[in-house]
Each structure stands twice: as C-alpha cells, then as structure tokens.
C-alpha cells in the first residue's frame, strides 16, 4: 500500500493555492467581483486551457471568454509550466478560490454566531495526493476489476477520482476503460466542473489526445446532486473526503434531515457521509475524516455502528497539519479503508503519523514506516470503546483489572461556567488585595483586609498552559451575591453545586494540547470549565491524611502511565471529565501511597517556591530565592519526578518511560 511520495507535489500544491489567493486579492483590489460564478468558471477554463496546450491536446470547449480581466488572465497564464501542467492544478486553484468564501463563513460563524449557510463553502479542502492514492489502492484490494465501479459522493476538485484512475490503470485496466468506471457527486456545481475537466485532461494525457465520446460519459457520470438525499445505486468502492460541519453549526433543515435519516451518525456532516458510504458500497470504502468519531463520547453509538459494518483494514492517524493551507490543531484527521464484505473482527494496519509536522513529512513517514497491527476488540472494556491502538496490552488490561478514578475521586460533571467574563473575571493584580478570599499557600489578604468588598473575589482555575503540580493562578472571579445572582439567572451560565466552591483538591487544564497536567488547588478557590476540579473521596486510603491522599492521586495523574491512558481515551485537544473519570487506577497499598505522597508534596512545595521567581505571579518575590538556588531546586525537583515515575510505573507494572515533554523542565512559567 505504501509508495514514496513526490517531494515536489506538496510544494506545488502550496504554491498554487498561494498564487490563487494572491490573484484573488489583486482582482478584489481592482474591484472585480470574484465571488461570481462567471469569474470562477473563467479562472478554471483558462487554467484548463493552459494545461491542454502544455499536453499538446485539443483546447475545444476551453475558451475563457472575457470572465476574467486581462490582468487576471495574464497573471494566471504566466505561471510556471510545472504548476499549470500538474494534473491536480485545477483542484488546487479551486481550493485557493474557495478560501475567500470559507473565511467569510467562519467569520460570520465565530463572530456573530451564525450557522454556516451551506456545506460547500465552509468545508472545501483538497485531499493530499498521497492520502488519496493510499485510500484508492487499499479500497481496490480484492475488488473484482471486471465489474468494479467507484464513486466519490463529495467529489470536490476530483482528487479521489484521479487516484482511483491511477490505481485502476496500475491494476491492468486501459485508461479509457478505467475512466468509465468512475462516478462523482457534488453539491457545488463549480467544484463538479473542476472535477470533470481535471479527469478529462488526465485521461487525454494518458491517451495522447481527447476523446469526445469518453468525455461525454465523464460529464454524465460526474453530476450535481446531494449525496445525503434520495435513493442511490450500489457501487463496489466508495472513496471520499466528506465535508465537515458540527451539529451546532448546521442550518436547521440539515440538522433535521440528518436526525431523521442518519442517526446515530447525525452529530457531524462527515459522520453522516460515513454512514452513506457504507450503505452504498458493496466491497470497500476509503475515507478521510475528522478523528473525533473514533474517540469522542458523543460518537460512541456511531463508532460502534461504524466498526461493526465491516473489517477496518487500514487506519492512517494523520492528526493535525495534514492539509496545505490549513494550520492549527482542530483539523485532526484520520484516513481509513474498510472492507464492507469482510468480517469486522480482523486486525487493522495502523500508521501513526501525528508527530510529523506537515503534509510532506506525514507522507514520507507513511512511506517509511511499517504499520502496527491492532484488533479493535482488544479495547472492548475501555469506556466508550475508542480506537486506542497505541495502548500496549500491559496498560489495556487495567481497564479490566482496576477501578476507575470515579470510585476514588469525584470529578464534577457538567460545566462550571460563570459568563460575562469582562465584568466578573479579572487578572488577580487588577483588584484590591483586601477583596480577595484567602487561599492558603497561594495568597493571604492583608491583615487589615476587612471593610467594603472583603471576600468578593476568589482565585479562579481557568486551565492555562502546561503547568504540572502548581501554577496558572492568574485570574480571580467575582463571587459576590450580585455576581452569583447573575450566574444563576443568565441563560449561558452554568454553576455547579456550592459544595465545590472553596474546596481543596486538584485542578487540571481541559484544553491541554494532548499533554495532561494536573496541579494542587488550595482551599478558597473556584474553578472554571477550562480548569476542572477533582476531589479525592474520603474512603480511599483511610489511613492517610487528606494532604497525603490528595498528593498520591496528583502523583498518579501526572505520571506517564496515566497520561498514556488518558490520551488513548481521547487523543483530541480536550480532556473531558468523562475521560478523567474512566482512568483506571490500580489498588495501591498505604506504604507505597505514603512514598508517592511524600515525593509529590516535596515537588509541589518546590514548584510553589520557584514561582516566587516568576514575574507577574501572585507569589512573585525576587529576593526570596537566588538564581543559583532556583536552578539547584529545579534540578532536585526533576530528580524527584524521576523517582515518582518509578513508583507509578511499578504501580501499573510497566517499564519506566522518560519524562519527555511532561517534566517540570517544560512547565511554561519555569522553563526560563
């Protein structure tokens, strides 16, 4: 299935997208209306004409007319031959052109709370070529080439069909016959036209000339239709990169349709497409989708149905940064091939490509890496049954043999959300010290701190950057009667029980970028939905003092085994309360718990001391700890962390792993 990627293809894609966006910007500056269908068609037809000339084939039907200005047309036709001659250039141009509408759609959604108007503008991203090739080859394995028909129900610019054409020809079909086996559906008529010309020109390249009859068949088989509505014929293979749109972003009509026809896959548009592809395919499907359906709790029923529909043969965990032109962590994706005509209890070949930093690096790692093997039924006892292939058997077994954290600690459900943060949440230094509630170990108000406003503000756990053991106490929240009345009546607020307020325990960063980090929460504080809390239960380790029990649990949470287990439960950016509750915690004897607690208490105390050197921190006191002592203390704390890792590894009966990027040396406030 693997093949070394082109080292130039990704760079060409990035350059075409960038040039297209620059062309659009220049046209807008001249007052051209680049949203118009005529302008888009002129752009695509002109680019297709240039490609036809480079191929030495007929330009029939490729007159650009006057839809583009002379300046825009001259700029487009001056592009290097290496760009205009690429089979995928039209799709890349379409993605660059779509960036304008995508930006407008997301601005309206984020800034004004508007739902996306359609699935065509806000979700068009061109599939990386090597991913499409891998899916096409994988899905065609075992197919009957005498009758195979391939469909892309969200054809976009035609990337999947190009990959399928190449795979069919490699398998022995003549180019003309291979082209007749390809179908595409597309909601956006502009994208459908891009796909038609893309495929027609590639077939012409392989045949050495254009075939009008064959092109007429291509036009008839790549059509505009909504893939999620109406009856559909069967296809042996279905390949697609479906549009993504979450439940809250959908137009109301689309939400109702998915709820009525695609449950339990209705939570995202891409999930509904998975269901549709499985229903239409008779041999195999190959899809590039968001990773959430394989891990998140809200997709649990859909995940069960997905995995039960056939044998998951190939799983490429691409993670973030898989697309050129799209940065950030939110578009974390997987590509998978599933045999619909095979039993589901078969091993899956897994490539973990998440650490590669860009599309080219992911492609190279895919080509160079031998896949692991995973049988999904191994995770049958894991809550929610996520596709946790990265967990070795020595850790997976604890879901059967150990109690979940929910039995030894309380992790409040729901979201603690105050609302109106500009009014009720402030940096700690922006309010009078006498008005802040005492938080022993963190802050003590002045001895004469009575009077008006006393006790109005509480330190507020709001998550923050990577800070294990102690830290991120940057904010205070208004806890006056007036403020709490607002929280109780405001429809967007949600307060948990008062019994959690001011209670000593543990808090952690919800949005942790994949690195779980918990820290001591002193009494007197409150916590936010982004800095949730954990409270150890009294019956756990009854022979230990509260401080020791709290410290022992904190040590377990910040260990390598716990982080690996939590990451397997949910490899997305957020750690949900349900994930933390499900963490298996082996039974620990009091003697070992005391050793763990002693190490953790010394670590927490040392980290608190080091925060005295952090300018802006509530404990800042530059005279309290000279630099040489601070460096020695940090080195000592890392030694303690190493000793703690050995204790927790023994508890989980696994080998000790390096601290890597989870140690105190990467605590954001202490790294300098």
From TrEMBL:
Any single biological process term in GO: DNA modification
Might you give the EC number(s) for this enzyme? 2.1.1.72
Domain Type II methyltransferase M.TaqI-like per the UniProt entry, residue ranges: 182-317
Q: Which reaction does it catalyse?
A: a 2'-deoxyadenosine in DNA + S-adenosyl-L-methionine = an N(6)-methyl-2'-deoxyadenosine in DNA + S-adenosyl-L-homocysteine + H(+)
| Key word S-adenosyl-L-methionine present | yes
Q: Which InterPro entries does the protein's record reference?
A: DNA_methylase_N6_adenine_CS (IPR002052), MethylTrfase_TaqI-like_dom (IPR011639), N4_N6_ade-DNA_methylase (IPR050953), SAM-dependent_MTases_sf (IPR029063)
Broadest EC class assigned to this enzyme: transferase
A molecular function (GO) term:
site-specific DNA-methyltransferase (adenine-specific) activity
The organism's place on the tree of life at top rank: Bacteria
Keyword terms: Methyltransferase, S-adenosyl-L-methionine, Transferase
Q: Does the keyword S-adenosyl-L-methionine apply?
A: yes
Q: Which PANTHER family match?
A: DNA METHYLTRANSFERASE A, DNA METHYLTRANSFERASE YEEA-RELATED
Q: Which named protein is this?
A: site-specific DNA-methyltransferase (adenine-specific)
Give the originating organism.
Lujinxingia vulgaris
């Amino acid at each position: 299935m693997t093949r070394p990627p082109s080292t130039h293809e990704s760079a060409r894609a990035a350059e075409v997208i960038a040039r297209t966006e620059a062309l659009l910007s220049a046209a807008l500056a001249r007052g051209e209306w680049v949203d118009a269908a005529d302008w888009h068609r002129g752009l695509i037809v002109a680019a297709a004409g240039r490609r036809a000339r480079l191929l030495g084939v007929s330009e029939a039907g490729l007159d650009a007319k006057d839809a583009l200005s002379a300046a825009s047309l001259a700029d487009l036709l001056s592009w290097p031959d290496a760009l205009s001659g690429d089979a995928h250039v039209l799709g890349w141009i379409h993605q660059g052109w779509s960036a304008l509408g995508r930006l407008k759609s997301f601005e309206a959604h984020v800034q004004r709370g508007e739902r996306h108007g359609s699935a065509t503008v806000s979700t068009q991203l061109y599939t990386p070529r090597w991913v499409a090739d891998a899916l096409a080859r994988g899905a065609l394995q075992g197919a009957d080439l005498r009758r195979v028909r391939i469909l892309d129900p969200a054809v976009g610019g035609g990337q999947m069909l190009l990959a399928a054409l190449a795979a069919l020809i490699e398998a022995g079909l003549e180019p003309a016959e291979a082209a007749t086996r390809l179908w595409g559906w597309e909601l956006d008529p502009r994208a459908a036209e891009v796909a038609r010309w893309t495929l027609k020109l590639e077939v012409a390249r392989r045949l050495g000339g254009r075939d009008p009859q064959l092109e007429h068949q291509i036009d008839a088989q790549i059509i505009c239709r909504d893939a999620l509505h109406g009856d559909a014929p069967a296809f042996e293979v279905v390949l697609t990169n479906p549009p993504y749109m979450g439940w809250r972003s959908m137009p109301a009509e689309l939400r109702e349709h998915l709820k009525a026809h695609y449950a339990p896959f209705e939570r995202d548009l891409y999930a509904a497409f998975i269901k549709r592809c499985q229903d239409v395919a008779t041999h195999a499907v190959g899809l590039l989708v968001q990773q959430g359906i394989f891990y998140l709790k809200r997709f649990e029923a859909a995940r069960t149905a997905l995995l039960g529909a056939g044998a998951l043969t190939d799983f490429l965990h691409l993670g973030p940064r898989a697309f050129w032109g799209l940065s950030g962590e939110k578009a974390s994706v997987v590509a998978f091939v599933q045999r619909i005509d095979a039993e589901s209890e078969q091993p899956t070949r897994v490539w973990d490509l998440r650490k590669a930093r860009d599309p080219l690096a992911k492609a190279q790692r895919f080509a160079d890496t031998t896949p692991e093997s995973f049988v999904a039924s191994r995770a049958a006892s894991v809550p929610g049954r996520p596709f946790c292939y990265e967990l070795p058997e020595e850790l997976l077994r604890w879901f059967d043999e150990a109690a979940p954290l929910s039995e030894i600690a309380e992790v409040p459900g729901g979201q603690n959300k105050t609302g109106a943060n500009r009014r009720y949440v402030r940096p700690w230094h922006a309010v009078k010290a006498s008005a802040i509630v005492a938080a022993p170990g963190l802050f003590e108000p002045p001895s004469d701190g009575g009077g008006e406003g006393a006790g109005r503000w509480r330190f507020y756990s709001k998550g923050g950057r990577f800070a294990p053991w102690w830290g991120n106490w940057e904010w205070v929240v208004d806890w006056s009667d007036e403020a709490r009345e607002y929280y109780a009546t405001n429809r967007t607020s949600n307060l948990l029980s008062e019994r959690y307020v001011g209670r000593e325990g543990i808090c952690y960063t919800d949005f942790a970028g994949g690195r779980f980090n918990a820290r001591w929460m002193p009494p007197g504080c409150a916590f936010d939905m982004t800095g949730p809390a954990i409270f150890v239960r009294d019956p756990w380790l009854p022979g230990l003092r509260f401080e020791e029990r709290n410290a022992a649990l904190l040590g377990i949470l910040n260990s390598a085994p716990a982080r690996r287990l939590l990451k397997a439960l949910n490899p997305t950016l957020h750690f949900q309360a349900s994930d933390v509750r499900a963490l298996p915690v082996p039974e620990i004897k009091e003697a070992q718990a005391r050793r763990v607690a002693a190490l953790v208490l010394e670590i927490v105390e040392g980290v608190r001391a080091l925060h005295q050197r952090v300018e802006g921190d509530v404990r800042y006191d530059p005279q309290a700890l000279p630099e040489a002592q601070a460096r020695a203390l940090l080195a000592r704390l890392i030694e303690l962390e190493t000793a703690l890792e050995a204790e927790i590894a023994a508890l989980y009966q696994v080998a000790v792993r390096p601290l890597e990027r989870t140690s105190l040396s990467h605590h954001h406030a202490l790294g300098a």
